[in-house]
Amino acid sequence: MTNCIELKGLVKQYKTFTLGPVDLKVPGGSILGLIGENGAGKTTLIKSMLGIVRPTAGEVSLLGTDPDRAKEDIGIVLDDCFFSEYLRVKDVNSVLCRVYRNWDKVLFQHYLDKFSVAGGKGIRELSRGMRMKLSLAAALAHRPRLLLLDEATAGLDPVVREEILDEFLAFVSDEEHAILISSHITSDLEKAADYIAYLHKGKLLLCDEKDRLLESYGRLVCTKEDLEQVDRGYLVATRKSQYSAEALIRRRGDFKRLYPRLAVEPVTLDELMVFVVKGEKA
């Protein structure tokens, strides 16, 4: 299976912030969910991949080639609609048909209808959620092979998000297609993503298959005294209150066999992030 995205030692350096180095691969036929708190570097990573900002160092390969050569086959949704507010929704059709050789006017209208975006409305009249739907329709209408999406489901209600996730899953049923999506809505990624990459303060802390990640880690709830007896090699981060303690643990299955009387729960992506950001390092 070929990789639709390959990053090797990608770095983007600013005066007060450094992203990377990031090494990352996204195989065809898969969805990678990019998570991290605000300011972690998710948008910077996507813009560096596209050349919107010039990387300081590293290599980027998209669809097996240079990003500039691949741009015809890449669908992009950034964290806000990039169309002029002075356009009407239906004007996007006549604009983008001159940009993409594979632009499909009928398919664009199909997605507008599916997402309930009125073609006669001015873009300035649209809510944030409607603008995101318009951007998604435009990203899909030139039949790309790779989607790079920055908070593409933000502002959408749960029913529409479910429909769009189904659309994404259908998109990657072709093994020559892939999606990288950053999102704060981690429940969406738990449903749809095959891989998870976790950025924290510009550093890639975790990158693995989603199922393996969620199976490997666990949330321990116990007394502070019990926590003191646990092998530190299992602890990633801890949080303590006056009477109890919590810990993010690795190798959950091994831990449960070694400490059968301690309660260990599956961990969510949200809990994983909170422990890493707010917990005390073990």
Reconstruct the topology from this structure.
Layout: E1 3-13, E2 18-27, E3 30-35, H1 42-50, E4 57-62, H2 67-70, E5 74-77, H3 91-96, H4 105-114, H5 128-140, E6 146-150, H6 158-171, E7 178-182, H7 186-192, E8 195-200, E9 203-209, H8 210-216, E10 218-222, H9 224-228, E11 235-240, E12 245-249, H10 252-258, E13 263-266, H11 269-278, E14 280-281
Parallel strand pairs: 3-7, 3-8, 5-6, 6-7
Antiparallel strand pairs: 1-2, 1-4, 8-9, 10-12, 10-13, 11-12, 11-14
Helix pairs in contact: 4-5
- Spatially, the strands of the biggest sheet line up as 5-6-7-3-8-9
Number of DSSP strand runs: 14
First and last CA, distance:
38 Å
- The stretches of 5 or more residues where confidence is low (pLDDT under 50) are none
Q: Summarize the main sheet.
A: 6 strands, mixed
The helical percent reads 25-40%
Assess the beta-strand content as a share of residues. 25-35%
Order of secondary-structure elements? EEEHEHEHHHEHEHEEHEHEEHEHE
Average pLDDT: 88
Shape: elongated
Radius of gyration: 21 Å
Structural class: alpha/beta
Number of helices: 11
